[in-house]
């Protein structure tokens, strides 16, 4: 699977090869921050640390971009003279919502005294994020594609269509 295919699997369609090369690693910044934050919360078995991450993950699923992308958009982008990040399509938002559910599950587990459950959920989230951060392959976006069909477009970042 190429870099272009991995990015398109997340729903980012219609991007030329140069843009893909220039935003590839920057699209991994928000998942990397979430991964580290979730790893710290899970290692500490801290419901509080994980609860503080939940709103950021949820906003990534609701908004057209992740709040942590602002670090690139209003900082790093000007330092590297990079292009703007595209709006988050449905597969990428789905990934953020899956992370939100997992964070809630882990935080709640630690809070009610189920540390083993919290560890399993928390470390599963961290590993999934590590795969995305290190390879660009987004497991939740892949799951989205299996359930709803792979993202497709006629040269626009339009609606996702189910393939038969």
Brief overview, please?
By secondary structure, the protein is mainly alpha-helical. The chain has helices at 3-9, 17-23, 29-43, 47-62, 70-80, 90-111, 115-135, 139-148.
How would you describe this protein?
With about 160 residues, this protein is mostly helical. Helix content is about 65%, strand content about 0%. α3 (about 30-45) runs antiparallel to α4 and α6 packs antiparallel against α7 (about 115-135). It starts with a helix and ends in a 16-residue tail after the last helix. Mean pLDDT is about 90; it is low at about 155-164.
Name the descriptors:
mainly alpha; 164 residues; disordered C terminus
Number of strands: 0
User: What is the mean predicted local confidence, pLDDT?
Assistant: 91
Question: What is the count of helical runs?
Answer: 8
Overall outline: globular
Distance between the termini: 21 Å
Structural class: mainly alpha
Which percent bin holds the helix content?
Answer: 55-70%
Q: How many domain units?
A: 1
- Write down the secondary-structure element order: HHHHHHHH
Q: Low-confidence spans: pLDDT under 50, at least 5 residues?
A: 154-164
CA-atom Rg in angstroms: 16 Å
Strand count, sense and barrel status of the largest sheet are: none
């Amino acid at each position: 699977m190429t870099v272009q295919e991995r990015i398109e699997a997340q729903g980012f369609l219609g991007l030329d090869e140069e843009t893909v090369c220039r935003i590839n690693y920057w699209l991994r910044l928000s998942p990397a921050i979430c991964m580290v934050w979730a790893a710290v919360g899970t290692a500490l078995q801290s419901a509080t640390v994980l609860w503080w991450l939940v709103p950021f993950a949820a906003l990534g699923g609701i908004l057209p971009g992740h709040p942590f992308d602002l670090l690139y958009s209003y900082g790093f982008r000007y330092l590297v003279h990079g292009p703007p990040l595209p709006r988050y399509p449905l597969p990428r938002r789905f990934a953020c919502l899956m992370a939100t559910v997992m964070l809630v599950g882990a935080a709640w587990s630690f809070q009610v005294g189920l540390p083993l459950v919290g560890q399993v959920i928390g470390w599963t989230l961290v590993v999934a994020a590590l795969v995305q951060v290190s390879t660009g392959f987004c497991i939740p976006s892949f799951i989205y594609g299996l359930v709803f069909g792979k993202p497709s477009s006629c040269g626009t970042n339009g609606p996702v269509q189910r393939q038969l």
